[in-house]
Design a protein that fits this description.
single chain; about 190 residues; alpha/beta; Rossmann fold; about 10% strand; binds adenosine monophosphate
Length: about 190
Amino acid sequence: MRLLIMGPPGAGKGTQAMRIAEHYRIPAISTGDIFRAMKHADTPLARQVREIMESGGYVSDEITNEIVKDRLAKPDCQEGFLLDGYPRTLQQVQTLDDYLAETNRTLDAVISLLADTDEVVARLLKRAAIDGRTDDNDETIRVRLKVYAEQTEPLLDVYRSGGLLVEVNGLGEIDEVSERVFAALEAHRERQTI
Ligand code: AMP
């Protein structure tokens, strides 16, 4: 299975991504996690990533695309993968499409986790208090939601028109949401094989 999971910050993508990856025995690749791990290094690139993340904006397409292409070339991705938090811009969509085409692969589905704004803001503030994530304060949360609405939400239409979008209600207990995702993916798979 080659999957993407999309949704606003705080929709529960990371949690669901881990469960979906385990279920289908594929690696979950989170660009947010990759950047969080990177930002502690003492290099110009790490400093740049740290500043961008703390402002709530997006890391450049150039850097992000290179990181993802390197990761997808690893042997554990040959049987499938789940990308969490990538692509986030139209240019990233294009790069991913081209890269998959070059390597004779296509996506099976794009999971869109739906959640309302009040709920995601409440979740992000709670996560900030628990994890101490520096990109989860009031100001950056607002910026991140705005950047998501402007730059990433339009990608859902691209995948919808490509017949890949699988929309799932992201509100509720974690297990309940996972079950919804699995059921929606199976229904999507059946539709594709008819
Ligand atoms: P996340 O954990 O997915 O919410 O990502 C945290 C932060 O990492 C984002 O707010 C961005 O600054 C950066 N980031 C993660 N994925 C991407 C991406 N695909 N493109 C650009 N920036 C990204």
